[in-house]
Amino acid sequence: MSFGAIVRNKLRSVLTLVGIVAGVASIIAVMTAISVVQSTMEKEMSVLGAQVFQVQKWPAGFNSDEERRRAMRRPALTVENANTIRERVSTVDLVGSEIWDFGYAVEYRGESTNANSSIVGGTPEYPANNTHYVGQGRNISQIDVKNHHKVAVIGFGIGQELFPFTDPVGKDVRMDGRKYRVIGVFDEKNSAFGGRFDQYVLIPVTTFLDTYGMVGRGGFQRSVNITVRAKTPELAADALEETRQLMRRERGLKANEEDDFDFFSSESLITEFNEMTQGVKLAAFVIGIIALIVAGIGIMNIMLVSVTERTREIGIRKSLGAKPRSILLQFLLEAVILCNIGGVVGVMAGFGMGNVVTLFAPFDVNVPMEWAVIGLVFCSAVGISFGLLPAVRASRLNPVDALSYE
């Protein structure tokens, strides 16, 4: 009977559903879009792996100029610090050093890339700790690091651009006017966010420091980042704490002094992103709830009109023995069904709108079913809340008055 009443009044039902569809679709679309971006970011942010963290001089961000100045006063991290961690922390198995510089062109026989390539000085642990492996040739070795060799492992994109038809291994390239012998090429690694994982060159960290180790007029020493891999994912927390305590002792920090270095991991970056999106999620949720409340008021008005139009029907049913409870459930169920039809349409529309971004960027399609369930639960709650008054009014009609109603 509830379905029949909805179908008989098609235009009224459709107009009533518009508000429900808009409210649910707005919530689902935003949550889906965030989930699409978030799932891709989590996959790309996991570059360090579940058991790898990084020790660095600079924090992830600054909340004030004072924090920035305080960070600048921190002493630099060195390759020797990495060696100490490797020798004295029992829960780790790979410890590497890396340091970056940006905005360079790579040249080969008159051909040159754009000045958007990066130079990274690293150690042999770089590929394993950053999950970016050498696909052709070889990785840099400890001998290269020890002897300050001018060798390089180039990114896949650079290899494709400068050596489209030849093997780059064994060729000499130039960066910043300096010559390096190519010993390997990284595997291809793309980013959905336009990151340039394939546009950098890895050279021995000692070779990098010889050239770019000091910056500024005062000759300030540049700080390396230390990548540390725990022996197992379960030991990651213990490895981080052991490393923290060792670094504090090495840097002479007292018990009441805060760390003068920071830690970075994929998990911390993912957590930071999730915190950044909380405001967007909350705003979308509030907007959607407001839209559902407005739609609920519309449903209540429509149901009150429906009760008035069907007064004689209610009177006939009551005169034939229908109980008030049956009348109440009929009209309440009609409101709930109406809301959930709108909810289902809104969920489908929201999933579609939220995944539109996948048409323009290499993101993975994502369907957050938990938000579909939440949306439908709210639709049922709206139907019950705003359909209750009309249903109660219908159930309390006097059958004699209802039968004589014109």
In short:
Helices cover 53% and strands 17% of the residues. It is built from 14 helices and 14 strands.
Topology:
Layout: H1 2-8, H2 10-45, E1 52-56, H3 65-72, H4 79-88, E2 92-104, E3 106-108, E4 111-112, E5 117-122, H5 126-129, E6 134-137, H6 142-146, E7 151-154, H7 156-162, E8 172-175, E9 178-186, E10 200-204, H8 205-212, E11 214-215, E12 220-221, E13 225-230, H9 236-250, E14 262-265, H10 266-309, H11 311-319, H12 324-354, H13 369-395, H14 399-403
Parallel strand pairs: 5-10, 7-9
Antiparallel strand pairs: 1-13, 1-14, 2-5, 2-13, 3-4, 3-8, 6-9, 7-10, 8-9, 11-12
Protein described:
This protein is an alpha+beta fold and 406 residues long. The chain has two domains: 2-44 and 271-403, no CATH class; 75-260, no CATH class. 53% of the residues lie in helices and 17% in strands. Strand 11 (214-215) and strand 12 form a beta hairpin. The radius of gyration is 32 Å and the shape is elongated. The model has no long low-confidence stretch (mean pLDDT 85).
Q: Which descriptors would you attach to this protein?
A:
2 domains, 406 residues, two-stranded antiparallel ribbon
Q: Pick out the low-confidence regions.
A: none
Report the β-strand fraction as a percent range: 15-25%
- Give the radius of gyration: 32 Å
Q: SSE order in H/E notation?
A: HHEHHEEEEHEHEHEEEHEEEHEHHHHH
The structure class reads alpha+beta
Distance between the termini: 22 Å
Write down how many β-strands occur, each being a DSSP E stretch of 2 or more residues.
Answer: 14
Mean pLDDT: 85
Biggest sheet features:
12 strands, mixed
Shape: elongated
Percent of residues in helical segments? 40-55%
Number of helices: 14
